[in-house]
Amino acid sequence: MDVYEAVMSRRAVRRFTGRDIPKEVLERVLFAANWTPSGSNLQSWNTYVVTGSPLAELKKRAGRRVAARDPWDEREYEMYPADLKSPYRERRSRFGHERYSALGIADGDWEASQRAASANWDCFGAPAALFCYIDRDLGVPQWADVGMYLQTVMLLLRGEGLHSCTQMAWSVYRKTVAEILSPPERLILFCGMSIGYEDVTESYVRTGRAPLNETVTFVDSTSQQLAQAAREGSLLGV
Ligand SMILES: Cc1cc2nc3c(=O)[nH]c(=O)nc-3n(C[C@H](O)[C@H](O)[C@H](O)COP(=O)(O)O)c2cc1C
């Protein structure tokens, strides 16, 4: 698969078949993903891959907590700033609207959206899950390295005909995840990732993106001349 096709065909898939993934496929993906670059080659990702009965047990325990409306574990990091500013606030609500209206859930129907979100802790039916941890002593640049690593994993999965959904949702039940994985105390759970073969009978709406000119600025001789002309125009009051 060509790189563009891998990037453009990756999306957050939220319904998988139960078809098992051969272990050698997951090993091949994670071996290649280990070549992700990182500042000073720190390689700050700590990955656990869970399948079979340990994953079934994790889903069962998390499902029990969801059903009991157990309070979420205290946060080790904030998923989003409390006061999300523009344009992020609008993008977040557009995403929520797109995701939940595709499921026939009306804006503001908190109960129904929570029911849909609870599929997170069943890994959307996936037969494999990856949990990515980072050392609590590392800083923002190393968290960015982990992000690059996760994207590399997701693209390689596409190369294997697999799909994925990265899930910060798992961080709210991090203690349940820790019961199964027993990670060292020095690690923080950043996110989980469900991995599997897409259930193609499930319809979906492709999540959109902001137009390029909202997120990318090209600085070249033409743009500089235009900026200069605009500045002179404003000085002349035209
Ligand atoms: C770090 C990260 C955490 C995410 N957490 C969740 C999650 O907990 N549950 C979920 O359903 N989707 C989650 N997503 C998926 C995003 O909602 C999705 O990537 C985004 O809306 C763009 O859609 P696309 O991936 O289909 O292009 C997460 C994505 C990332 C990168």
UniProtKB/TrEMBL annotation:
InterPro entries: Nitroreductase, Nitroreductase-like, Nitroreductase/BluB. Keywords: Flavoprotein, FMN, Oxidoreductase. Signal peptide: none annotated. Transmembrane segments: none annotated. Residues 7-197 form the Nitroreductase domain. Pfam families: Nitroreductase. This is Oxidoreductase.
